[in-house]
Amino acid sequence: MSTPSDATPRKSSNAGRYFFMLLFGLVIGAIGTVMVIRSWQARQDHFPDSVMTVQAWHMGQLKKNIEQNRCAATDIIPNLKTLRQMADDIEPAFGEDAKDERFVKHAANYRAAVDKALSSPPLSCESLKATTGDIGAQCKACHDDFKKS
Ligand code: HEC
User: Fold this and answer.
1) Are 55 and 139 in contact (CB under 8 A)?
2) Nearest to residue 62, comparing CAs of 129, 113, 147, 143?
3) Going by CA atoms, what residue is nearest to atom 22 of ligand 1?
4) Among protein residues, the one whose CA lies closest to atom 14 of ligand 1
5) Distances (CA, A) of 12 to 3, 8, 9, 26, 32
6) I want to staple 114 with a disulfide (CB 3.0 to 4.6 A). Which of 54, 84, 89, 99 is the partner?
7) Do 110 and 94 touch, CB atoms closer than 8 A?
8) For the ranges 15-19, 41-45, 83-87, which has the lowest average pLDDT?
9) Which ligand 1 atom is the nearest neighbour of the CA of 106?
10) Using a 6 Å cutoff on CB, does residue 138 contact ligand 1?
11) pLDDT at residue 6 is higher than 70
12) Minimum mean pLDDT among 38-42, 103-107, 119-123, 141-145: which range?
């Protein structure tokens, strides 16, 4: 009689310990999952900055072309084409801002400036300077209204 009654509490306390470990594991797992999802979401938020960084890089290339006096169509057009192609990504990248009509108008004006440059590409560094000025003015117009820092 004394043997089973000794064994029973020990068994249940082991079960309790396993149950605790199981719960502990589940909690750690849940915390880990939340952390992974959070970091994944944070990474998603790099989309807008990435679009802007590439825009800025191609504008930088055009400015370099002017400085180095390399303003042939083959030097300029690939950069203009990428600016135009990626300009279509501005609204999808800026999900929240893009709900604002003014933002969409700025993006449209910016695309119009690049379209204009592509339809009659600058053939000299002098005219490229004017073109980058027109495009840059549209970057600035949108930044003045929507870029926080
Ligand atoms: C329709 C609006 C719009 C247009 C057009 C636009 N931008 Fe932006 N840009 C923004 C907004 C909004 C931010 C702020 C993004 C943020 O902080 O997350 C930004 C941020 C930037 C940044 C900082 C990115 C970073 O890493 O924080 C650069 C560089 C930039 N833009 C360059 C440009 C250039 C160059 C052009 C034109 C060739 C341009 N942008 C056109 C809206 C625009």
Assistant:
1) yes
2) 129
3) 52
4) 147
5) 15, 6, 5, 21, 30
6) 84
7) no
8) 41-45
9) 1
10) yes
11) no
12) 38-42
Ligand 1 pocket, residue 17 CB under 6 Å: no
As given in the structure block, the two tokens for residue 65 are 């072309």
Is the CB of residue 13 below 6 angstroms from any atom belonging to ligand 1? Answer: no
Q: Span 9-31, mean pLDDT?
A: 84
Structure-block tokens of residue 8: 């029973």
Atom number of ligand 1 nearest to Cα 104: 1
Tell me if 66 CB under 6 Å of ligand 1.
no
**Contact criterion met (CB below 8 Å) for 68 and 40:** no
Token pair belonging to 3:
């043997």
